[in-house]
Amino acid sequence: MGITTLTGTLTCTSQADVDMVQAFLPDHIRLSRAEAGCLKFNVTQGENPFVWHLDEAFVDADAFAAHQTRTKATIWATKTAHLVRNFKRIDS
Predict the structure, then answer these.
(1) Which residues contact 7 (CB under 8 A, 6 or more apart)?
(2) Can you give the pLDDT at residue 45?
(3) Cβ contacts of 79 within 8 Å, gap of 6 or more
(4) What is the pLDDT of residue 1?
(5) What are the residue ranges of helices labelled H in the chain?
(6) Which residue in 30, 39, 48, 62 is a FRET match for 2, CA 20 to 30 A apart?
(7) Would you state the pLDDT for residue 47?
(8) Do residues 78 and 22 lie in contact, with contact meaning Cβ atoms separated by under 8 Å?
(9) Where are the beta strands (DSSP E) in 2-83?
(10) pLDDT tens per residue across span 12-58
(11) Residue 6 forms beta bridges with which residues?
């Protein structure tokens, strides 16, 4: 198995969403980067402040699956569930 990457966008629909992402994102990034198998985890606000760009990489599909499992049980997942996600996963 090779590296699993995820790229794409997370789009807010209101300024309240932007504020919420800004409040909860630092902890989400910190916890994700601390996971075993995380090679890269970047989420940055785009030129359009309602759009956030993701660039993640994990050592393999199992590490990515563990990340997904952990994330589903967090306040980040609850608070951002309604946001529009446009992600592309690549297993190389």
Answers:
(1) 53, 54, 55, 56, 87, 88, 90
(2) 98
(3) 20, 24
(4) 66
(5) 15-33, 61-72, 75-80
(6) 30
(7) 97
(8) no
(9) 4-11, 38-45, 51-58
(10) 999 999 999 999 999 999 999 999 999 999 999 999 999 999 999 99
(11) 56, 89
**Vertex 56 angle, CA 81 and 88, to 5°:** 65
Residue 89 one-letter amino acid: R
For residue 26, what are its two tokens? Answer: 């630092």
CATH code of domain 4-91: 3.30.70.100
In whole angstroms, give the CA distance from residue 9 to residue 44: 9
Does the structure show a pLDDT above 80 at 9? yes
Residue whose pair of structure tokens reads 């902890």 in the numeric block: 27
Sign of the CA dihedral running 38, 64, 91, 81: negative
